[in-house]
Amino acid sequence: MSALALLGTAAQAEDYHAHSAPAVSALSRAAVQAEAVAAAHAPDQNISSSSVVLAPPAAPRERASVRAEAVRTAHAPDQNLHASSRVDSQIVSTLPNPVDAQVQQAAGDMRANSNNLR
């Protein structure tokens, strides 16, 4: 290797510490150590999260309402559109949801049947 090449690489070298940020923490070293010791001595710390039984939700919803919401969302005409799919695009949903149309038609049919019974 020539002396000129060595001189060029020496000029390119940078100090590693110039790019590292100083450590900033709200906790002292002793507090972090205490948290680490407490976590290490915690019961059942090595059980995977998939093995833990979760508590039921605080406000469970009825199965029928969840299903109705899922069906409505799945049948939405703009469900696969995202504003980020095109530059400066906006999605304005002007198409009626087929599920809403079915519900309105069923409600209209019920009114028509009740009027015929009178």
Structure commentary:
Residues 60-72 have a biased composition (Basic and acidic residues). Residues 41-56 have a biased composition (Low complexity). It comes from Xenophilus arseniciresistens. The protein has 118 residues and is an all-alpha fold. It has a domain at 94-118. It is built from four helices and no strands. The protein has helices at 3-12, 29-40, 63-74, 98-117. The radius of gyration is 32 Å and the shape is elongated. The chain starts with a helix and ends with a helix. The model has no long low-confidence stretch (mean pLDDT 76).
Strand content: under 5%
What integer value in Å does the Rg equal? 32 Å
Order of helices and strands: HHHH
Please outline the major beta sheet. Answer: none
Tell me roughly what share of residues is in helical segments: 40-55%
Structural class: mainly alpha
Q: Compute the average pLDDT.
A: 76
Q: What are the segments in which pLDDT stays under 50 over at least 5 consecutive residues?
A: none
N-to-C terminal Cα separation, in Å? 105 Å
Q: Total strand count, please?
A: 0
What gross morphology would you assign?
elongated
Number of helices: 4
Biased composition (Basic and acidic residues): 60-72
Protein name: DUF4148 domain-containing protein
Organism: Xenophilus arseniciresistens
Region (Disordered): 41-87
